[in-house]
Amino acid sequence: MKKRFLGIRDVVTIAIFTAAIMIIGSALSKVFGVLSFLTAGGAILVSGAIISFLTAPLFLLMVLKVGKHGAIFLHSILYGFIFLLAGLPHMVIFYALVGLIGEVMMMPRGNGYHNVFRAGLACSVFLSVKALHPAAILWIIGNYNPQGVHGYTAAQITKMMDIYFNPITVALIFVLTFAGSAVGSWAGAKILRKHFVKSGILQINE
Amino acid sequence: MIQLKNIDVHSRQGTPILNDFSLSVASGELVVLSGPSGSGKSTIIRLINGLAYMDDALVIEGKAELNGQSIKSMNSWERSEQVGSVFQDPRSQFFAPIVEDELAFYCENFGMKPKIIKERIHQAAKEQNLLPLLDHRIMTLSSGEKQKVAIAAIRVARQTVYVLDEPSSNLNLAATTQLADLIRKWKEAGHTIVIAEHRLHYLTDLLDRMIYVRNGQAVRSYSRDKLIILPAEQLAASGLRQTRLVWKTGINRRSVPQNIHELSIHQLTINSWSGGEALLHNLTFSIHSGEVVMLTGSNGIGKTSLARALCGLSRKSEGTVTVDGRLALRRKRSRQIRYVMQEADFQLFGQSVWDELFVGIKEDADQVTRAQQLLRELDLWSLRDRHPSTLSGGEKQRVTLAAALMSTVPVIILDEPTSGLDWRSLEKTAECLKREAEKDRIFLVITHDYELISQAGTRLIHLKDRIVTDDFPLDDTSGARVLSLLTQDES
Amino acid sequence: MSKPLILDPRTKFSVVLIIGFLIFGSSVTQLLFLFVVMGIYGFLNGVRKSLPIYVLFLLLYFLSDYLASETRNILFVSIAFFSYFIVCFLPALLAGEVLVRTPAGQLMSALGRWHFPKTMIIAFAVSLRFIPIAGLEIRSIHEVMKQRGVAFFSRTGWLHPWRTFEYALVPLMIRLLKISDELTASAVTRGVEAPIRRTSVHVIKFRSCDYVVILLVLALAFFLLMTR
Q: CA B362, CA B380: separation in Å to the nearest integer?
């Protein structure tokens, strides 16, 4: 039987997949960051969805390959740690929470880590909560930081905050990202079956 | 000493890997395992260093002992104190960005004091002539230097048993010679050494025994004296590479210039990646179809950069490239010049070998016949339904070659196509290159594999000091000249 | 120019932690003040070439803020809105850049001192080391796709987006799995599983300048919190 705790092989696998997911995510966020300047923030709505769509298959493979509790949490902590190195220590707290949510998704009946559907679901929830982080941070700053040097922009910023961070927009981001990652997981599962399960590299339960 | 007794290994799906395999290696002995790809050599190595026991996909039966202790029952760190392992591809073995930190990895894991770590690093680095490189970034080193770092990183442990899995695959001739010197030193120091290797020439004078492994069994055992007198034909028939580098004579290298296609390079300058001085300066040469041109030169001289510039992947070049007399624009060049990279994993997209050949190609009757023919020529026919990722390194390399040959591009550039190949595959590849070249293709092969040059080359272009220093047709008498060029390369 | 300061990585971690949380709830004036302090900190620690970029962002914000209130144009408001958030993070990013420039070996040494579990340290080391390599791997795959006429921005790419998606992902996945395997093998045969606390070849030590930096940053934090 498999050992219950993460072994060195699992840790290395998680670390490597985390780095790859990070690279794809940050490259795309740069593109969407520039776009959001130009579209007055419109790109923020879809950026999470697209990034999640593209990274979901990698995430799914990582989770299924490791197949043990703690994989999502470690991935999440690593992600947060890299943000910490970039100067954003609060992300560690945020990602620890997200990681816990992901782990809880895998909890019941213990076999979630080999079940494609469960893993896909956890992956979608994890990625869509994760995608809220820019919104969450902007929200804190927008609400607690006294803004602007000119009164006019301060008022405008408050106005824009209302547009971007009312519950509907946040819910919309969440739903879009969830849809994006769900489609990504579905597509990922298809690829995994076609390429990895058949050739015996990966064992999964349907 | 190492004792393997009646070992049976098969995968969870039931594919046999080792079959009643027994081997005993006395302390101080140097044993080389050789044989065709997929014969189970790597698994033997992984049994000795214990990695096989950590692989959930393998079922292992039989007794494996190291100095009288069962390898299976040892902890992985206890094994690492006794057995040092050198792997094929040093690129993906590193944990630290800096050489010194990499060498410290082992000692750090065992909680040694910084002062002792420094001592051990110094000693291991000295043995490998790495002292001036200790503060360098590993990514900037050549493959030869990376292999040295990988070896020094295990040497800090001062083990007495060493296992090496195709250690020369990514090395040029000069680096291979240095590796041979190192192994000799280890042997003189009384270490026990087991090497799985296709290239035999650098080990012939060192080894005590060569075990011929085939289909998971030790078929025959040769002592050094017996191996040396083994005729070339018998080696070739067993699928073994040369024990002495011998130039192949009596074959027709005079390519019949058909002039169907012509690749011309005029005043091509390749600028370096980081700016600064150009890597290659004002290259001018032309190649006709029918030729298999071997491109040689030291690591980092710019062979790969040249290939990338030629096929239009890199913008760092000035000068003109013409194919069939017409100027080939950078963006359109990929339709005329195809570059097959050394690393095969990047280049495999399909869900089976068969599928792989039809990536980006229509599956019509002509192409199906062509695919069947290529697979047979390259000895891949029996593997056609396998997933590319389950193949061995040498098999993957041949699949990427077959995929490139499926397209109609007139020029194909190959980067080290034979690094992991056994003799049979090397011969098949060489034949395939010659046959395709005679039809209408131009081949430019980046290599430092003497055996491949000897089997397939019709012309050699040697790069040194930013220019072409040698450009000559190969014939029955070129052997010595080629060898001297290859040995002059820096590691 | 003078040599960069040599600080203990633990000091740099602390600075990142303090500044990272201090930026929340700061007014623009306080942020500017923080920015200047962090600018000096960064300069002393060898962050020199990228400093102008940070200043540029600051200027962009003030310019767009000014233009927005003068012209009331929605484009400037939008730019001001987003550049404001970037400006909020500039001090933290500066502190982060100082930390990131620390050699990985020293970072791991600091984590070891803080009694992080061995597996975590290995995981951090592998991630950090692999981030630049992952970029190269992805680029190589794209190059091969271009060669075989199945790249994203080719005719096939547009016609068969699903196939292109697969062609991009499969080699990447195979590669990642293979690298994981090889790296694991390399780690295991070098005693990574030994149940002994990890040490480091890098000796890290608090020096007087570390105490000075930490004291100054704490004083700064105290002062800024008091003036809120």
A: 21
Type of residue found at B198: H
Number of alpha carbons in the 13 Å side-chain half-sphere of residue B133: 23
In the CATH hierarchy, which top-level class contains the domain A8-197?
mainly alpha
Averaged pLDDT, B333-354: 88
* Residue B270 main-chain phi, psi, to 5 deg: -105, 120
Given this model, what pLDDT does residue C215 score? 92
- Statement to judge: residues C94 and C123 lie in one domain: no
C154 contact B CB<8A: no
Q: What angle do CA B400, B402, B407 make, to 5 degrees?
A: 100
Q: Which residues of C touch B153 (CB under 8 A)?
A: 190
Instruction: From chain A, pick out residues whose CB is under 8 angstroms from the CB of B57.
Output: 200
Are residues B334 and C147, on separate chains, in Cβ contact within 8 Å?
A: yes
Q: Which of B104, B150, B338 sits opposite C147 (nearest CB)?
A: B338
Mutate one of C87, C100, C128, C169 to test the A interface: name it (highest A CB count within 10 A): C169
Please name every residue paired with B58 in a beta bridge, in sequence order, or none if there are none: B11
Provide the domain limits for residue C72: 9-103+204-226
Share of chain B above pLDDT 70, in %: 99
Instruction: Name the pLDDT band for B163 (thresholds 50, 70, 90).
Output: very high
In Å, what is the CA distance from B188 to each residue of B27, B32, B207, C42? 12, 17, 12, 54
Q: Kindly give the pairing relationship between strand B442-446 and strand B292-297.
A: parallel
Domain regions of chain A by residue span: 8-197
Closest C-alpha among B158, B147, B412 to residue B293: B412
Mean pLDDT along residues C120-143: 90
Q: In chain A, what percentage of residues exceed pLDDT 70?
A: 82
Other C-beta atoms closer than 10 Å to the C-beta of A143 total 12
DSSP A205: B
ipTM of the assembly?
0.90
Supply the CATH number for residue B473's domain: 3.40.50.300
Nearest CB neighbour to A200, from listed B13, B54, B351: B13
Residue B261 pLDDT more than 60?
yes
- Given a cut of 50, whether residue C1 has pLDDT beyond it is no
Neighbours of chain B (3+ CB pairs under 8 A): A, C
Which whole number is the average pLDDT over B53-64?
90
